[in-house]
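Progress note, project year one: complex with FE2/S2 (inorganic) cluster.
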Amino acid sequence: MSNEKKYSPIKVELEKDKNYGWCTCAHSSNQPFCDGSHKAHNATPSMRFSVEETKTYNMCTCKLTSNPPFCDGSHK
Ligand code: FES
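Model obtained:
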């Protein structure tokens, strides 16, 4: 499997004003969200975020984006 395939962005519908935790360490089994795996790996904690509009977002899974938690094309 190529890195590009493995780390493609994921489209997720996010709800306005709901609190989310974006995985920053890449160990989560529930990408793009944190599942607490960073604790076992002594890795970086999640980034808390919310959105101002309920819609589908293109979420980064490669962790290289300059606009977390959203994909900015850096995975290519
Ligand atoms: S998945 Fe596209 S920038 Fe990370």
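The mean pLDDT is 93.
The first helix runs from residue 3 to 6.
No further modelling is planned for this target in the current period.
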